[in-house]
Specification:
Distance between the termini: 24 Å
Structural class: mainly alpha
Strand content: under 5%
Order of helices and strands: HH
Radius of gyration: 15 Å
Oligomer: single chain
Length: 70
Amino acid sequence: KWVADKRRVTWGKTLWRSLDRVFRSYLGKRGYREGYLGFLLAMLAGWYQVLSYAKYLELKAGMPRGDAWS
């Protein structure tokens, strides 16, 4: 989506989105009430943003899908 829309995504914006996602999941949606599981889910929600950025960089570099590890 970011590549198709020709959006400029930076590492700082990705870091901000990741932290925002963690805090919204953990505090905003009261993940702390679930204990460790809530914390883990909040961290995974933040990690999703980092993985999305990595995929964006691969697509922007013109790397064909599926060739990242070969």
